[in-house]
Amino acid sequence: MIPIAKPLIGQEEIDGVMGVMKSGVIAEGPKVKEFEDSFKKYIGVDHAIAVNSGTAALHVALLAKGIGKGDEVITTPFTFIATANSILFTGAKPVFADIEAETFNIDPEDVEKKITKNTKAIIPVDLYGHPANMRAIMDIAGDYGLAVIEDACQAHGSIYQGKKIGAFDAGCFSFYPTKNMTTSEGGIITTNDRKFADTARMIKSHGSKVRYYHEMLGFNLRMTDISAAIGLAQLKKVDGYNDARIGNSIMLNKLLSGIPGIVTPVTKPDCKHVFHQYTIRVTDEAKLTRDELIVELNKAGIGNSIYYPLPVHQQPYYKEIGYAETHPISEKMSKEVLSLPVHPSVTKDEIQFIADMFKEVLT
């Protein structure tokens, strides 16, 4: 079986965790601070605030931007549900703008159409590791006085026009085991805004700057030193991991090119796509439907997955709370996308095997 994803844990991570365990400081401590310092340098920002998940990063960032009841936040419906749920957690309303078919990322033109007097922020998602159109999004945000909170949970090391993703306003990353780098579970917020960073630090730690003195309502969303130790080892490897993903994706793009009904992923100019997922489209022109192709992939032992089979606005809970609009491109993409293995553990021979299987069943 060629798995769709595989966490890569080496001796460096094991040694780091054992060092923390022996130190006796296993909750948030010096390793978290070291990881924050290392990650902010990696992204190229002044502040990084480690938390216990990517969802927590989004939630805390929204609260630190002052988002709350009566506010609207524009985001994409073609994403993992945590993006939109984080908005609901604050009492604000998610407003969905449709996506661009080429990159699967939010369409800035549709974003601008959705702005109202209640709009306070935009959450673009760098889906599958491809940067959103940050120049257009930042221009719109500047024109309307909006905050921008990047959901960069799939985009560690991704670059847009020479600038690391996560360095534009506020960035939120996830370190779930299947991501390009992991801390087991974990997340982090990046920013150059000191006031925002200070507020985020208080929110994620019971509203406190000084222990047992609480200035605001907060949560316990801290990262542990155990997770940070894993993250420190992974951060040294992530660029190499990304290079392997990109190399595998380039090879698979070449091998799948020309197969009827298969649309391979693109990388837009001035962008570094880090291929958290390698996602093709299986269109009506293909010899097999997507479901039929999945059956063949499973038979051949080739891991695959659909990210995401149902846009957020069509999820049962969102329909229950009143979302009835349509977003045609998101809905079309959800019926066509299919992700294939290109993570660093996939070998060139396995890439060739995947391509040969596609040619066998689709041509």
What report would you give on this structure?
- The protein is an alpha/beta fold and 363 residues long.
- The protein folds into two domains: 11-235, Type I PLP-dependent aspartate aminotransferase-like (Major domain) (Aspartate Aminotransferase, domain 2, 3-Layer(aba) Sandwich), CATH 3.40.640.10; 238-362, Aspartate Aminotransferase, domain 1, CATH 3.90.1150.10.
- The protein is 39% helix and 15% strand.
- Helix 2 runs parallel beside helix 8, helix 3 (54-64) packs parallel to helix 4 and helix 10 (290-300) crosses helix 13.
- It is globular and about 65 Å long.
- The model has no long low-confidence stretch (mean pLDDT 98).
Write the layout of secondary structure elements.
Layout (H helix, E strand, L loop, with lengths): L10 H13 L6 H14 L3 E5 L2 H11 L7 E4 L6 H8 L3 E4 L11 H6 L5 E5 L10 H11 L2 E5 L7 E2 L2 E2 L5 E5 L12 E5 L2 H10 L4 E3 L2 E2 L10 H11 L2 H19 L5 E2 L7 E2 L5 E5 L7 H11 L15 H5 L7 H7 L2 E4 L7 H15 L1
Briefly, what is this?
The protein is an alpha/beta fold and 363 residues long. The protein is built from 13 helices and 15 strands. The protein has a 7-stranded mixed β-sheet with strand order 1-9-8-5-4-2-3, with helices on both faces. A 3-stranded antiparallel β-sheet has the order 7-6-13, with no helix packed on it. A 3-stranded antiparallel β-sheet has the order 12-14-15, with no helix packed on it.
Class of secondary structure makeup = alpha/beta
Q: What fold name goes in the CATH topology slot of the largest domain?
A: Aspartate Aminotransferase, domain 2
Number of strands: 15
Work out the strand percent: 15-25%
Average pLDDT, rounded to a whole number, is 98
Radius of gyration in whole Å, from Cα? 20 Å
